[in-house]
Protein 1
Amino acid sequence: MAPNSQFLEELHTKVIHEFSKTLEMFALSPGEARLFVTLYLNGEPMTLDEMSKALGKSKTAMSNGIKSLVDLNLVERVWKKGVRKDLYQADENLYRKFMTSYIQKWLDAAQQQEHSLKQIESTLEHEVDKIREPSEIEEIEELYNRLGDMIRFHRLITKKFSEMKPASPEASVK
Amino acid sequence: MAPNSQFLEELHTKVIHEFSKTLEMFALSPGEARLFVTLYLNGEPMTLDEMSKALGKSKTAMSNGIKSLVDLNLVERVWKKGVRKDLYQADENLYRKFMTSYIQKWLDAAQQQEHSLKQIESTLEHEVDKIREPSEIEEIEELYNRLGDMIRFHRLITKKFSEMKPASPEASVK
DNA sequence: AATTTCATACAGTTTAAACTGTACGTTATT
DNA sequence: AATAACGTACAGTTTAAACTGTATGAAATT
């Protein structure tokens, strides 16, 4: 299954290099991206040792990388009769997996951050009465307005990315 | 304009810290994100020296950071009568600016990468005839199919992000 | 039960990014 | 014209991430 001619070898490397760049835009590290592409091109599930050999990196690096990819739900651990080593396989459906994973990451982060900002906002609301200095009051108002803008910003992001979710799998029977 | 009480100072720092996390998701480095938020909270344009003082970083760091932000079209250099130093101001419209900038980055990258992959694809098409080894032919077919999938992937991304563009400014009169 | 094979935790190293301080050229002020 | 103030290029340093090799514990094989 591994490339067995100079020509194919080079092409393989080139594809890995190029496609990795795209996957890095989905917030994968270069290492994770290369690992995914290797698995994806290979089609068949691979062991840590095979990945290690294919990428010329240590087994530990593969173990760490795979852990990230599995956490992101982009790679699956599969079982094969008689094979003792762990086997991992890249999901075939690039678009659905990456979009879903990516959008979810955005939504989680936006929600978390919005919450943090709201907390600051409420602190501000509670503490503002204690302030007497007029110049400070004005400045607090300023900050308060900005906080409102930021929170609205998060709401818009959440809305936009929610709309972006791919149709659910059962909806797109083809 | 700078915070003048312990309480406000802390709150300011907290807001910068939290909101920066969100902006980092738009592919800003932590430094760039903090710089933008500082500018944004300040409202009034700032000089490099003021930013340097506000963030406790060197002037060179500010100069570099601002350069990135200006390139991303998130910060504008403004002119003020009688002020000799360069003045920079964060754009008010968070959502439009960040979305536009971010989507454009995606579209540019997706297009560039799709082109690279297509080039590899055509190399493959031209060279495949020279191959005689049956096992290699099969493998080339495999790689060819995957390449097609990847290219399709880029097209889908381009489509999705194009749809995501905020309405043009003149369209959203409010 | 002893041995081998595996994945991963851990400590140390390498590599790349962020940052600093000085030096330089340019523009404004005297 | 000379001096001062400014932004940034550059070289060196610090810091954080990625990676390696060994050690360890768990699971399978003998």
Protein 2
Amino acid sequence: MAAKPLKPMPLKPTKAGAATTAAIKVGVRGAETSADKPAVGAPSPGRGLVPAEMIARRIEEDIVLGRRHPRERLIEQDLCDLFQTHRGDVRLALFELVRKGLIERIPNRGAMVRGLAPQEVREIYAVREELEVMAVSVIPFPVAATDISRLEELHREHSAAVAAGDLLTVFYSNLRFHEALFGLCGNACLIETIDLLAHKVYGIRFYANASPQSLDRARRDHLEMIRALRAGRRDELIKLTRRHLKPSPEAYIKAYEQRFGKASSADG
Amino acid sequence: MAAKPLKPMPLKPTKAGAATTAAIKVGVRGAETSADKPAVGAPSPGRGLVPAEMIARRIEEDIVLGRRHPRERLIEQDLCDLFQTHRGDVRLALFELVRKGLIERIPNRGAMVRGLAPQEVREIYAVREELEVMAVSVIPFPVAATDISRLEELHREHSAAVAAGDLLTVFYSNLRFHEALFGLCGNACLIETIDLLAHKVYGIRFYANASPQSLDRARRDHLEMIRALRAGRRDELIKLTRRHLKPSPEAYIKAYEQRFGKASSADG
DNA sequence: GCAAACTATATTGTAAACAATCCTGGGAGG
DNA sequence: CCTCCCAGGATTGTTTACAATATAGTTTGC
């Protein structure tokens, strides 16, 4: 323990929760800084994120959009040059991506984009289904009109992107739609966990997004979800939630088996 | 983009899952390399961990056992001296703990042990219950005798620690028991997510572990769980799983309200 | 006497250099 | 011809120093 001749900390026994953010003697900036971290807002934003988080997001985006394929390796120095930063932050970003399950890292060797085995994908989607169904099961009904409006707005965004074939915008508007939907449940931990698992399978969306049919089906699902929400039909909403999660893993696994043979999907 | 004149990577299209670890051309030594880094002797888990993970673990343990209280701040240099390492690893460990929800970090200010508001605790436990019930719901029955034996062994360990009043061992053996139990479900993602959420509330176990009655109740719960497992009574097991999760948050919230007043628990 | 600004210090963030480790490829020995 | 060993080069891991930023205490102006 080094010197600590000054005060140990403000020590205000406020409610320790979200507001605790302000504890360190929050200036005007404190709140903002840690506040706007939940979203995956825009393609390449620099807004109030820690540099490492921004780098992680950019790499994530590359993986999602297929610009970096599985087994491709990520060199720290390359990333430093690319993002104009130092290795400390790049390193942090890489560990962050390991945590999210998007890349793999072996000490003293390096990091590489991670491919998901069918079995893993199935398992992740099983948990996602459980949690997303839980989320829509606890949404307080009736849902406020403003919330419905917001979902409709996001749905319009998504539809437009689908129509335009703009995959990047499709991806992010779809993300925002689901964030808004599950956000209605009010359980921050649940929302965060759903988000975490969604990140793990970002990479395979590429397969699901491949066909226009899939995109359109997703669009229609969203529309039905909004209807069910407005009508207060919870059972319907749950059914839709389950159905909406089916196509992505199926498309991925099918593509995987066609490419590498069926054997791999059965092991493990 | 620096030079990359050599091979881009082995590129073996094996099953991309867990075995992928070997992809970078893992030699025989690969595993050892990360293993033989004792760094700082940890009480319980000295296993092959990256230094940063070990540091995170130690700090986590301190928090769990109340050796570091909420709002206490963590200075990078102090931790370097304590763990005999450099700031890079300490920094990594701190970010890791932020992710686990045990500490809070504000850029340019520092990190501090995080206190959980009652509302957060409730939310986390709600998700934990959902996932743990899911886990025991998908355990393939009947359970192998060796698995039952292992659980009994861990239960004995736990019981002994409870009897001896050795809180540290109680904590870790309890952890191992639940890892083994939920491990039976076979869904790696589910196991990992359950573990993640358990970490988030490590800190509040201190309250639950305070009374010998609580410890003994947990012990008896474990015993009943093993019985239900052996008898193949899934409904019973689910009921026990739910019941087992109740006391901890209740004890914490009660203690919290007694200390800071009831107002805080209702907001948010 | 109070408030605003200033300085001093503690702490975090960034950068660069150095050391350790691992893959690649060629050559010696069998 | 094959195997083993050894240098060469690339990449990660570690160390150190320095810069930026925030907090605390003090001073100055009113």
